[in-house]
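To assess whether the prediction recovers the assembly geometry, we first specified each molecular entity separately, as shown.
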Amino acid sequence: MKRKLIAFLAVTACVFFSVQMLFAAGNVPEKGEIFPEITLPVPERTHETEYLGIKEKTHFMISQINADLIIVEIFSMYCPYCQKEAPNVNELFALIEQSEKYSCRVKIIGIGAGNTPFEVDVFRSQYNIRFPLFSDETFSIHKKIGEVRTPHFFVIRNTPDGKGKMVYSEVGSIQDPAKFLERIIRESAIRQEE
Amino acid sequence: MLRTRKISLLFVIVFFVLLLSSGASYGISEQFKGKIYAPGSLKPVDSSTELKPGMKAPVFTLPSTGGEKISLAKFRDKKNVVISFVPAAWTPVCSDQWPGYNIAKHIFEKNNAILIGITVDNIPTLFAWTREMGELWFPVLSDFWPHGAVSKEYGVLRSDGTAERALFIVDKKGIIRYIDVHDINTRPSLDVLVKELEKLEK
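The predicted structure of the complete assembly is given in tokenized form:
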């Protein structure tokens, strides 16, 4: 009887986990893997469209951004860690913009998981964020990338075929912005292509 | 034999409960590391309030994490009040609701409104939890003892002793102007709250 019970328990556990895996949103894309294709609306602000270098009218794919390296921050205006990290990311953005070599090659975007456009605006104005932020109100992008905790930073080595591998995928602070920038440039080897 | 069958049935139930609980959708801030308890998907609303917009808001006095007692009556003729009940400390959606209000202070101020947060947790628990959110500009009140008395008066005490995720807007005259007893599993959007605040006399 005891053996039967154990067998039953084992079967239940197996079925549970396999079914749950089917339901699961998928894993977090790791360093070395390809970032899933994500479509975003073209920003209303012209300077943001110019920054991204996109020519599409309504929607564009992340791989269409005119840059060799794309930093994607998954944030939420409701996330205290993201709030604390915001000035640090602004500093990274400023560093890139000041760099003659990399301002055209490295771009940053933010995606607000579960945030309405209004909530994204609150975050943007609170921290005076100058790179483009997008709303993911329904968590549909968040689900596609494995429901990461926030903030999560992805850095994509962008190639014309959209199959560029990620050079960074980590939750939490980017720490020192200068060191972070140096690290992703080194690891993506974009310097060699000059 | 009967016992085995009972146990089997129990496993089947546990299995489905676990399965259903894996579908809730929310973002968790890395701020809280692994400290957030995942309750899974819960019954959206588990109470019914008899309060309606236009009625007088029940008055209350509760202790706050700051040490002092806060009364609703204190704001009479001075401020509009948003009361935000959340179910419990250290749970996913709640831990990502008040930190958002924390950076929206200017919106409340613009509408001459203050915010009061209430849960049924005791003060030490609330103290530890809200400290993880950083400095909060609004008071957080404990409706711990007699357990959930204020939540009950507002008709938002759930059958398990937690509160609903509910928003009440009380105007300067002490009249309820807006009620949202929200699905406990999701966060009410700031958009709706702001629209309701903008309707008030400042």
